[in-house]
Design goal:
This protein has about 190 residues and is of the alpha/beta class. It has a single domain, classed as LmbE-like (Rossmann fold, 3-Layer(aba) Sandwich), CATH 3.40.50.10320. The chain has six helices and seven strands, in the order E-H-E-H-E-H-E-H-E-E-H-H-E. A seven-stranded mixed β-sheet has the order 3-2-1-4-5-7-6, sandwiched between helices. It is globular. The protein binds zinc ion. The site of zinc ion has 5 residues, from loops.
């Protein structure tokens, strides 16, 4: 059984970026945890119902902060959380994301993986990915059977529910690259063969 940890900045990042992939992995028996670094945002109130639709377990790092910084305290705490979960795969944001909290997640995962023999995939975070310049999409996941679950989970977030239509177009466009209805893409950052 796969043990997956998604390290993301905000509630709604998982759903928008890789909700179909996570729904697929959960259906195949994976355990998925979403460590959310910034919980001090109004849309945190939609998190539990969105997580229930997809079937992952949310863990909020801070419920009070609306920003986070990579410093020795954050690194120490997240290191402990990751060691406890002991994932086979960490999915996090891209280093060229335009949102500073997303970039900080990438930096933190880059630091903590020094002690973790773990695969790392970078996700393509809508809508910031529309401005990526060098994202190397080298991993496609067919999510055709999981689009309903993904869009239902996004719809739980009243702040981004109106994005379902553009996200669906995006998924369909990516699906055309692998001759299917809908896909999500990732960039493999780091792979470990044990
Ligand atoms: Zn975000």
């Amino acid at each position: 059984m796969k043990n997956i940890l998604v390290v993301s900045a905000h509630p709604d990042d998982l759903e928008l970026s890789c909700g179909g992939t996570i729904a697929k992995f959960v259906a195949e028996g994976a355990r998925v945890t979403n460590l959310i670094m910034v919980g001090g945002v109004p849309h945190v109130k939609y998190l539990d119902s969105a997580a229930a639709k997809i079937g992952y377990e949310p863990v909020i790092y801070s419920l009070t902060d609306d920003r986070f910084q990579v410093n020795k305290d954050t690194i120490r705490s997240v290191d402990m959380i990751v060691s406890e979960i002991s994932p086979d795969l960490i999915i996090t944001h891209s280093d060229e994301d335009w949102h500073q909290d997303h970039r900080a997640c990438n930096e933190m995962v880059s630091i903590i993986r020094r002690n973790q023999p773990v695969d790392v995939w970078l996700m393509s975070s809508y809508p910031y990915d529309l401005k990526y310049k060098s994202f190397n999409a080298n991993l496609y996941v067919d999510i055709s059977e999981y689009t309903e679950t993904k869009y239902a989970a996004i719809s739980e977030y009243l702040n981004v529910g109106h994005w379902v239509e553009p996200v669906a177009s995006h998924d369909n466009w990516r699906g055309s690259f692998i001759d299917t209805v809908a896909a999500e893409v990732f960039s493999i950052d780091h792979m470990v063969i044990k």
